[in-house]
Amino acid sequence: MIRLEKKGRNPFIVYGEEKSIEEQLRRNILLTTVDAMLKWSRRNSLWPLPLGLACCAIEMMGAFFARYDMARFGFEVFRFSPRQADLMIVAGTVTRKMAPIVKRLYDQMSEPKWVIAMGACAMAGGPYNSYAVVQGVDNLIPVDVYVPGCPPRPESLIYGIMKLREKIKQEREAKIL
Amino acid sequence: MIGPLIKGLTITFKYIFKKKFTVQYPEERRELPPRAKWLHILQRHEDGKERCVACMLCASACPTEAIYIVGEENDLENPISHGERYAKVWDLDLGRCMFCGYCVEACPEEALAMTDEYELAVPTRKDLVLHKEDLLVEPGTPPVKTWLGFYRKEPIGAMPVTRPMEVHVEYEEYLKRRGPREAHE
Ligand code: SF4
Ligand code: SF4
Ligand code: SF4
Fold first, then answer.
1. What is the CATH number of domain B30-180?
2. Residue B152 above 60 pLDDT?
3. This model's pTM is above 0.80
4. CA dist list (Å): B135 to A32, A53, B93, B149
5. pLDDT value at position B101?
6. What is the ipTM metric for this complex?
7. Fewest CB atoms within 10 A around its CB: which of A45, B33, B60, B104?
8. Which residues of A lie closer than 8 Å to B, measured between beta carbons?
């Protein structure tokens, strides 16, 4: 949230500084290097699984075509099979009938995987405060970045993905056993 | 076989020398139209007082009930807004908001306006709820054109203050005359 960032708060900082000796031992030079490599490769080749469920999908397509060409960042191809994707973009209204399918697609994606909830409907149900709509896709699957808008501009989505990259940059994956 | 290949490649090479169509987004931004409806802000008067008087019209107009307001009566010596009341809590839930602009249309004080700030991504659902501190502009910020501003002839920010400060004195006298509030009121 750029307004918060301007006021000196960055909500995307996930981890604080580590202080304990164990923590520092765990993060020795070898592991930090492996970690850095892993993170570098992951965040520069996020292949999205487009879950276009309603009108937001149109703006998602807009973000991927020539005007805002997301391939510039390495989000190269839409992968319509979940096995080859590592970023799920939930764009649109998740109805109760669609919910099991969203969950199953998420389960079929291979680790590591991330989720972006795009648009008011996917974030929190949006304008549809109704029995037929899941009130936020985070009731089904964990969400990493929320992109507000109805629909968000393609730029907003690209900004969200860049913030996701920032988040991946801070992840600590490699461990001794 | 060669024919179609050459035909296709001609188109490719023609586009190589044309002007680039892609917007290099983070470095270069497209100019949004003047009525672009993105993040809301709460404006201030020229003297730094808040414009919002907690009339709740925006919350009533909102089709998705994204706005939550708790109003409180102004302290007469040190008022926060020019009206009788000010918004103690003014929350906007971006998870519900669909940026329709009905709230801006409804606002009689030109307190609410929409900017072209579209970079709104947040990491948690809690951050989706923006509070008054996040939305209120700094004192001295030039006014943003609201819906009223588009349809009126006067300059922006020339909207008269609905309740001048003298009214407070009258109101105080009225309170004295009326006596303490009844329990059932
Ligand atoms: S957030 Fe708005 S644009 Fe996106 S799917 Fe819901 S109703 Fe459609
Ligand atoms: S823009 Fe529309 S949905 Fe958003 S707070 Fe205003 S009235 Fe509600
Ligand atoms: S309509 Fe305007 S003045 Fe009334 S509560 Fe909303 S923002 Fe404040």
1. 3.30.70.3270
2. no
3. yes
4. 39, 31, 12, 20
5. 86
6. 0.78
7. B33
8. 1-4, 7, 11-12, 14, 66-69, 72, 120, 123-127, 129, 136, 138, 143-150, 152-153, 155-156, 158-160, 162-163, 167
